[in-house]
Amino acid sequence: MIGNVVTDTARQARRPGLRTALVVGIAGVLGAGLMAGPADAASTLGASAAQTGRYFGAAVAAHHLDEPAYVATLDREFNSVTPENEMKWDATEPVRGSFRYAAADQIVAHARGQGMLVRGHTLVWHSQLPSWVRGLSTAADVRTAMTGHINALMSHWRGQIHSWNVVNEAFQDTGARRNTVFQSRIGDDYIELAFRTARAADPDARLCYNDYYIDDANHAKTRAVFDLVRDFKTRGVPIDCVGLQSHFNATSPVPDNYRQTIERFAALGVDVQITELEIPGSGAAQADDYRKVVNACMAVARCTGITVFGIPDHYSWRPYATPLLFDSEYNKKPAYEAVLSALNAGGPGPVPARS
Ligand code: G2I
User: Fold this and answer.
1) 78: left (phi > 0), else alpha (psi -120 to 50), else beta?
2) Which of 42, 44, 110, 305 is deepest in the core (most CB within 10 A)?
3) Number of the ligand 1 atom closest to the C-alpha atom of 59
4) Distance 171 CA to ligand 1 centre (A)
5) Residue ranges per structural domain of the chain
6) Which parts of 252-291 are beta strand (E)?
7) Surface-to-core class of residue 219, CB atoms within 10 Å of its CB (0-12 exposed, 13-18 middle, 19+ buried)
């Protein structure tokens, strides 16, 4: 239900003149005004986020979908999913031209059956890339492989994916381009080619650039992504969204200017989505940091959704860090309560239209 509402909204929002009506419409359908107060506090993460037109999602692994406690928590708490590994290139096109969709299809079917949004992750990335792609030697061949991969996946799930991470982690921490097979064979233009191909393949999906360590506006890598987005907007290259992965830890804590970073991306004319959130810990300090992150998103109308990178701690890719909202017995951690109350405290919304 929420998925349909947001997808329809995205589609209609590109027609001028409908925006005011949509603002009223989406708030009405999701059952809340622009500011949710304590009186109408919702009791799950997804429902509380929906009050301001946002989603609250989790990264999901297909092989856990046969575990009742996992599925019960997913279905109760979240209104968006991101396949953690199942849509990556090594999983979907391990052999050139031979596509495998079954594991990701399982996640998409489950999510859509529950009325959840689906985020696509990810089309062009240097990691989890099959060796046949890394072995391509000419620009023309890498171009053909990349556009073919984007077209195949986006066509397969056309109309079912709310937002796609089209290009993932293209920059180094210095702000220079990462030296991938796409960069070295095609050159700087590969990102533009990927986004133009993606827009044509599924015109209703929001197209995102996704990266880690772009949470602090002063970092060189963040500035490089600002420049990319500004350049795309100036030249009319399609881009709708920036994904802040937001993998925080002791050496890379939530920056004090996190909200300003989100605002600066939004000011460039894109939505911001927090896409892989995790913060190690188990007590009050973890809860405080999660609250800070949610408050920052809620303060910016164009911060349209948050995804935590897993459900219980023991299924995290860093289980020892216990970075998630549920412990290994699916008990709610203090961070869960902090997130829920921050979502219920409201903020500007609902989700604005793509510009
Ligand atoms: O690397 C952490 C994340 C950074 N941002 C992009 C994300 O897509 C990425 O996710 C992680 C997954 O959580 C891991 O589950 O990406 C890793 C690979 O870079 C994933 O790990 C891989 C293992 O390395 C493989 O051995 C395993 O076969 O997961 C695969 C599937 O379970």
Assistant:
1) beta
2) 305
3) 13
4) 18
5) 16-344
6) 271-277
7) middle
Catalytic residue among 77, 84, 86, 169: 169
> Judging by beta carbons within 10 Å of its beta carbon (0-12, 13-18, 19+), is residue 135 exposed, middle or buried?
exposed
- What's residue 26's pLDDT? 30
Kindly write down the DSSP assignment for every residue of 31-84, as one continuous string. Answer: T--SS--GGG--SSHHHHHHTTT-EEEEEE-GGGTT-HHHHHHHHHH-SEEEES
pLDDT digits over 171-199, tens only?
999 999 999 999 999 999 999 999 999 99
Closest CA to 155 of 114, 120, 110: 120
Given 84, 86, 263, 276, the catalytic residue: 276
The pTM of this model reads 0.90
Spatial distance between the Cα atoms of 118 and 80, rounded to a whole number of angstroms: 6
pLDDT tens-digit map of 35-70: 444 456 899 999 999 999 999 999 999 999 999 999
Packing angle of the helix pair 258-267, 284-298 (nearest 10 deg): 20
**pLDDT value of position 350:** 54
What is the predicted pLDDT for the residue at 349? Answer: 65
Mean pLDDT of 101-120: 98
List residues near ligand 1 (CB under 6 A): 84-85, 127-128, 212, 245, 276, 317
Active-site annotation holds for 169: yes
Tell me which architecture the domain covering 16-344 has in CATH. Alpha-Beta Barrel (3.20)
- Once rounded to an integer, what is the mean pLDDT over residues 225-239? 98
Ligand 1 midpoint to CA 86 (Å): 10
Tokens of 345: 């405290």
337 among known catalytic residues: no
